[in-house]
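Re-running YecH family metal-binding protein to confirm reproducibility after the cluster update. Everything else is unchanged from the original entry.
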Amino acid sequence: MNTTASRHGHDVLNLIADASIPFTIKTLHAYVEQHWGTNLHFHTCKLNDLSLDALITFLLSRNKITLDGENLHTNRDKICHH
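Result of re-run:
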């Protein structure tokens, strides 16, 4: 059976927040593929089975991450803690 790994969107939020050099969407993709694999989906408290691009779009729409030019930043005030 072929299973697809799933990580919570909070993992991405924390990764972006804790980075010493800001991620861009391109470098975030590269990091995720290198460290977490290519057969990976994401879930949130509300959504399941998201690609990384779909997760980024969702997080941007909820103002949980923001773009400053090309750099991604986590809006810690918008992160739920449940």
